[in-house]
UniProtKB/TrEMBL annotation:
Keywords attached to this entry: Acetylation, Cholesterol metabolism, Coiled coil, Cytoplasm, HDL, Lipid metabolism, Lipid transport, Nucleus, Phosphoprotein, Repeat, RNA-binding, Steroid metabolism, Sterol metabolism, Transport
Gene designation per UniProt: HDLBP
Domain K Homology stretches: 167-235, 239-307, 312-380, 381-447, 452-520, 524-593, 598-666, 670-739, 744-813, 817-886, 890-990, 991-1057, 1069-1140, 1144-1213
Gene Ontology MF terms: mRNA binding
Region (Disordered): 15-35, 929-965
PROSITE patterns the record matches: KH_TYPE_1
Gene3D superfamilies assigned: K Homology domain, type 1
Species this chain originates from: Papio anubis
Protein name: Vigilin
GO CC entries: cytoplasm; high-density lipoprotein particle; nucleus
Sequence ranges of Basic and acidic residues compositional bias: 24-35, 950-965
Localization terms from the record: Cytoplasm; Nucleus
Length: 1285
């Protein structure tokens, strides 16, 4: 059996609290035999828990730790009184220790402790639960597991550990089926908690299963605990009982008592729950639930009351008008309860759906007379009357903000006036005298209104109603304001055609005439479907609907509906007056035609190196072409291999832009353009599959561009563009190929390994050219992106193709004939071939069909070199190696003196320039090591120990005219090539020129973090040196190749002109204008989230600065506008217009019950924003803590403010009724609260504390404590009675 030592005490206390007294006693007896000192405190703490009228002693509250021996004997038991009495503070992190005996361990392999399956399981548990586990092995080979973490995590981890590391057992426990639901608990919470506590799995049969057996799976100890808990729950439910008592419905009020007080007292005294059915439910059964003994007491008391009332009471029946029943009942039945409380008589009122007027009084005979008097008094205390008034006059009788009615209700507050919608009467209810006075006043108001008001009803088809209302009510609000009438349009859901107009007779007639005219005009409307490709819909609508808004403003009477994008429909619907719809249709068709025309696209191939020149400095060139040609030009990304520029727009504009881009390329290089006429029917065959044939011609002819016309255009013109010589070459090949295609075309495919292709092509295409010249056939090799890399295609006349095929197959056959040969190479040249990871050998292998060349290992003196491969390849490779050796033999070394400061420039980015010279001239170039102090010192030479400085230097260094060693570049190769390479190097030496640029522009030339100067240096491939600011110099030095300096200088001077123009523009933009505006208007000018002021800033391109509120020295009414003079004046006028409008506005405070504020404001302010937008006012609600929480401020134009106030007061009246009903309902639903007087708390008090002891007692306690300490352990006096340690 495993045992658990839990370092928190809750689980033990909770477990123990569930035991029956006998079990507690038995356990205490057994524990006392084991640990007498500890258990005495425990038993006192547990059994005397109810006798706490006296304060506990210090030892009870803070029990001493157990003796050393007892601790050793019971290491796994909770310590004495610490297990109960004072509930400990719960720590956020707890620790529990589990011990699993050897016989219950699942994994018993002693050699794999800390690893294997057991360790994996522990790691999974830690990751899943977040608890920390530590495992240790006891001497008896049992497993100790310490779990740390939050309580929930520890309990889950404990459950997993028991389930996965400990062998499982199972047991069943039988309890009554009806008790199962108490074991499960609400939403299964109790069952989950029980499983966690006991680390077991508890399976309860389903409700439809007749079995009462509960199955428990887990460890033996866990099963015992779970079984015990289940039986405790069942035992507790055995004590409870339910009983039903039949009591006549008429006697229920006597049992409940006035305001349910009597039944409440019985429930409180007996602890039994008593459920009496409400009067509206026709049931006679009273249900009792509780402990059996207490339940019996409650039932006896109720029976007694019932029997007494049955004997003593009698009844009388009286007739009371049905309309007066509600006065007898009173609000929420209070009047009936009041009569019952005063007289002890129950009054039975017939249900509201019954036509009976008989009221029955039940009670003791002597009390019935008094109760009857009270019933009649309450029935006759109120009267109901009505006033005839047309329903359309009701709102005028109520008045704005309810002012008219308020006068009546203030004089007679007990009178209730009710207006029923759709009925031509007003109902008054209240005391008889007050109702008579109110009726006279209302009749007078009705007579007056009928004399000076009128109404009319008109029929207009309901499908036109929303058009009459207009967007956001614009049309109908205009009519209401203009004619001072009220127009009532039925909602769409009613499908009614009747519109009612009320108000001044003249205004009513005018409004009627205008509405009928609008309806007549709408009847003449037409609907038209316009077919527009869906791809143009987004463009027509525009960004944020700007373009469609312009169209709608141009044709305000036409409604334009676009289909949902998901529908993939091309139909755009227009609806409105016939003429306007036709105009709008033509306008939109023209717009679509323009869009179609502007969507023409052409591709222009431009050599990659000229893209940056087409873009221009800062994108100036491309921007200019776009603006002047009104086209969209897209260039490929810098890292893309594409050379194609896409131009989109009108066809003529695209052609113009294309011509300009091509002219830029033509000006920059010796680019020729030739047009060749080739029949259109041959174009596809000339292009070849996936462009293979035409691509091979372009690559063979130096990368020229060959442009075929668009398929289907019918044009025969093919354009060839590129360097003049390459264009002529491409033209000849294209015409020759076209002639062949036209006469007779024949194609053959042959296969050869990809590594043979270079050998077949030959150096510079020499071999394949020889084949083509001798046979007249064209040979096409696969491109890098082609999938079939072995396929070679031969095109031409059949006899020429056959001859070329024969020659190529012979070459391929020779290549397949692998031979091995050798040659002699002097060992001194071996290094040249194998350095740089055998780069020379790799180049030979690639060029000569993958031939393998093997040099002897370094350190051996052999001069034999072995070659293996195709016979022709081996021979060609031998010849190439011999040429390289001859070059090495004829190699000379030249010195080229270039100052060290220019070396980096000569090398170029990543040594690209030097690599190019090395390849072009087949030489080797070696740069000297850098010197730390390359500049010669002008200071006199210092002598040390009588020796002259520099005595040991070479004569060459001492000669001031000779170049320094760090300036000399070594060139190795053939003499003529070394000299040519030397000239090329000297041509790369940068030259410096000076350009005068005003000092104040230097920082703009440099740009943010040097971006401007870097861009110019990259664009012109020069170095630009700007003098330090402290020098105040106007001279900027440009260093670079002579060819680049003129362009760089021109670019710099162009930039200076731009900066000077920007300076002048900044001076014009810095004009300042001040406007005096009262600070109270500032928030309105700024607008919500700065919307208004941002609009002014963007519209007039100015900067507007408001005064700083925290700056006391700054005038608070000055607004500063900065920008162009004309724009600042326009912005000032815009601000003053806003101020003028604001000055016309008024603010009114409205008392609005704070309980309805939230509903008027709405979710996230949506409702109040809608009101403010509708009435064009600003509404401010009081902040929390305001002196008057009901004060709401409405600001706007006077007429708008008045209408807005009327609207929110109507809303208040509507919402307040709901609030009052809700509050009354809440009060009714709350159970009665019985406050009990609470005695002032004395805090936590203990008796016999150490600090209350005498000095001698304290000393004795201190000595006893020191004597009990183990040897060698220092103990400081905890009582502070002595200073010894």
């Amino acid at each position: 059996m495993s045992s658990v030592a839990v370092l928190t005490q809750e689980s033990f206390a909770e477990h123990r609290s569930g035991l029956v007294p006998q079990q507690i006693k038995e356990r205490e007896d057994s524990t006392e035999r084991m640990h007498p000192p500890v258990v005495s405190a425990l038993s006192v703490a547990t059994l005397n828990s109810e006798e706490e009228s006296d304060p506990p002693t210090y030892k009870d509250a803070f029990p001493p730790l157990p003796e050393k021996a007892a601790c050793l004997e019971s290491a796994q038991e909770p310590a004495g009184a610490w297990g109960n009495k004072i509930r400990p503070i719960k720590a956020s992190v707890i620790t529990q220790v589990f011990h699993v005996p050897l016989e219950e361990r699942k994994y018993k392999d002693m050699n794999q402790f800390g690893e294997g399956e057991q360790a994996k399981i522990c790691l999974e548990i830690m990751q899943r639960t977040g608890a920390h586990l530590e495992l240790s092995l006891a001497k008896d080979q049992g497993l100790s597991i310490m779990v740390s973490g939050k309580l929930d995590a520890v309990m889950k981890a404990r459950k997993d550990i028991v389930a996965r590391l400990q062998t499982q057992a199972s047991a069943t426990v039988a309890i009554p089926k009806e008790h199962h639901r108490f074991v499960i608990g609400k939403n299964g919470e109790k069952l989950q908690d029980l499983e966690l506590k006991t680390a077991t799995k508890i399976q309860i049969p389903r409700p439809d299963d007749p079995s009462n057996q509960i199955k428990i799976t887990g460890t033996k100890e866990g099963i015992e605990k779970a079984r015990h808990e289940v039986l405790l729950i069942s035992a507790e439910q055995d004590k409870r009982a339910v009983e039903r008592l039949e009591v006549e419905k008429a006697f229920h009020p006597f049992i409940a008592g006035p305001y349910n007080r009597l039944v409440g007292e019985i429930m409180q005294e007996t602890g039994t729950r008593i459920n009496i059915p409400p009067p509206s439910v026709n049931r006679t059964e009273i249900v009792f639930t509780g402990e059996k003994e207490q339940l019996a007491q409650a039932v006896a008391r109720i029976k007694k009351i019932y029997e007494e009332k049955k004997k003593k009471t009698t009844t009388i029946a009286v007739e009371v008008k049905k309309s007066q029943h509600k006065y007898v009942i009173g609000p929420k039945g209070n009047s009936l309860q009041e009569i019952l409380e005063r007289t002890g008589v129950s009054v039975e009122i017939p249900p509201s759906d019954s036509i009976s007027e008989t009221v029955i009084l039940r009670g003791e005979p002597e009390k019935l007379g008094q109760a009857l008097t009270e019933v009649y008094a309450k029935a006759n205390s109120f009267t109901v009357s009505s006033v005839a008034a047309p329903s359309w006059l009701h709102r005028f009788i109520i008045g704005k903000k309810g002012q008219n009615l308020a006068k009546i209700t203030q004089q007679m507050p007990k009178v209730h006036i009710e207006f029923t919608e759709g009925e031509d009467k007003i109902t008054l209810e209240g005391p008889t005298e007050d109702v008579s006075v109110a009726q006279e006043q209302i009749e007078g108001m009705v007579k007056d209104l009928i004399n000076r008001m009128d109404y009319v009803e008109i029929n207009i088809d309901h499908k036109f109603h929303r058009h009459l209302i207009g967007k956001s009510g614009a049309n109908i609000n205009r009519i209401k304001d203009q004619y001072k009438v009220s127009v009532r349009i039925p909602p769409d859901s009613e499908k009614s055609n009747l519109i009612r107009i009320e108000g001044d007779p003249q205004g009513v007639q005018q409004a009627k005439r205008e509405l009928l005219e609008l309806a007549s005009r709408m009847e003449n409307e037409r609907t038209k479907d316009l077919i527009i490709e869906q791809r143009f819909h987004r463009t027509i609508i525009g960004q944020k609907g700007e373009r469609i808004r312009e169209i709608r403003d141009k044709f305000p009477e036409v409604i334009i509906n676009f289909p949902d994008p998901a529908q993939k429909s091309d139909i755009v619907q227009l609806r409105g007056p016939k003429n306007e719809v036709e105009k709008c249709t033509k306008y939109m068709q023209k717009m679509v035609a323009d869009l179609v025309e502007n969507s023409y696209s052409i591709s222009v191939p431009i050599f990659k190196q000229f893209h940056k020149n087409i873009i221009g400095k800062g994108g100036a060139n491309i921007k200019k072409i776009r603006e002047e040609s009104n086209t969209k030009i897209d260039l490929p990304a810098e890292n893309s291999n594409s050379e194609t520029i896409i131009i989109t727009g009108k066809r003529a504009n695209c052609e113009a832009a294309r011509s300009r881009i091509l002219s830029i390329q033509k000006d920059l290089a010796n680019i020729a353009e030739v047009e060749v006429s080739i029949p259109a029917k041959l174009h596809n065959s000339l292009i070849g599959t996936k462009g293979r044939l035409i691509r091979s011609i372009m690559e063979e002819c130096g990368g020229v561009h060959i442009h075929f016309p668009v398929e289907g255009s019918g044009s025969d013109t093919v354009v060839i563009r590129g360097p003049s010589s390459d264009v002529e070459k491409a033209k000849k090949q294209l015409l020759h190929l076209a002639e062949e295609k036209q006469t007779k075309s024949f194609t053959v495919d042959i296969r050869a390994k990809p590594e043979y292709h270079k050998f077949l092509i030959g150096k510079g295409g020499g071999k394949i050219r020889k084949v083509r010249d001798s046979t007249g056939a064209r040979v096409i090799f696969p491109a890098a992106e082609d999938k079939d890399q072995d396929l070679i295609t031969i095109i031409g006349k059949e006899d020429a193709v056959r001859e070329a095929q024969k020659e190529l197959e012979a070459l391929i056959q020779n290549l397949d004939n692998v031979v091995e040969d050798s040659m002699l190479v002097d060992p001194k040249h071996h290094r040249h071939f194998v350095i740089r990871r055998g780069q020379v050998l790799r180049e030979i292998a690639e060029e000569y069909g993958g031939v393998m060349v093997s040099f002897p290992r370094s350190g051996t003196q052999s001069d034999k070199v072995t070659l293996k491969g195709a016979k022709d390849c081996v021979e060609a490779a031998k010849k190439r190696i011999q040429e390289i050796i001859e070059d090495l033999e004829a190699q000379v070394t030249l010195e080229c003196a270039i100052p060290q400061k220019f070396h980096r420039s000569v090398m170029g980015p990543k040594g690209s320039r030097i690599q190019q010279i090395t390849r072009d001239f087949s030489v080797q170039i070696k740069f000297p090591d850098r010197e730390e102090n390359p500049v010669h010192s002008a200071e006199p030479v210092v002598q040390e120990n009588g020796d002259e400085a520099g005595e040991g230097r070479e004569a060459k260094d001492s000669d001031p005219g000779s170049p320094r060693r760090c300036d000399i570049i070594i060139i190795s190769g053939r003499k003529e090539k070394c000299e040519a390479a030397k000239e090329a190097l000297e041509a790369l030496v940068p030259v410096t020129i000076e350009v005068e640029v005003p000092f104040d522009l230097h920082r703009y030339v440099i740009g943010q973090k040097g971006s401007g100067i870097r861009k110019m240096m990259d664009e012109f491939e020069v170095n630009i040196h700007v003098p330090a600011p402290e020098l105040q110099s106007d001279i900027i030095a440009i260093t670079g190749l002579a060819a680049n300096l003129d362009r760089a200088k021109a670019g710099l001077l162009e930039r200076v002109k731009e900066l000077q123009a920007e300076q002048e523009d900044r001076a014009l933009r810095s004009f300042k204008l001040s406007v005096t505006v009262d600070p109270k208007y500032h928030p309105k000018i700024i607008g919500r989230k700065g919307a208004v002021i941002t609009q002014i800033r963007l519209e007039h391109d100015v900067n507007i600065q408001f005064p700083d509120k925290d700056d006391g020295n700054q005038p608070q009414d000055q607004i500063t506008i900065t920008g162009y003079e004309k724009n600042t004046e326009a912005a000032r006028d815009a601000i003053l217009r806003i101020v003028g409008e604001l000055e016309q506005m008024v603010s009114e405070d409205v008392p609005l019950d704070h309980r309805v504020h939230a509903r008027i404001i709405g979710a996230r302010g949506k409702a109040i924003r809608k009101i403010m937008d509708e009435f064009k006012v600003d509404i401010r609600f009081p902040q929390s803590g305001a002196p008057d929480p009901n004060c709401v401020t409405v600001t706007g134009l006077p007429e708008n403010v008045e209408e807005a106030i009327d609207h929110i007061l109507n809303l208040e009246e509507e919402y307040l009724a709901d609030v009052v009903d809700s509050e009354v309902l809440q009060v009714y639903m709350k159970p009665p609260v019985h406050e009990e007087a609470k005695a002032p708390s004395r805090g936590f008090v203990v008796r016999d504390a150490p600090w209350t002891a005498s000095s001698s007692e304290k000393g004795a306690q201190c000595l006893a404590l020191r004597a009990a300490a183990p040897p060698g352990l220092a103990v400081r006096c905890p009582l502070r009675t002595c200073s010894t340690v």
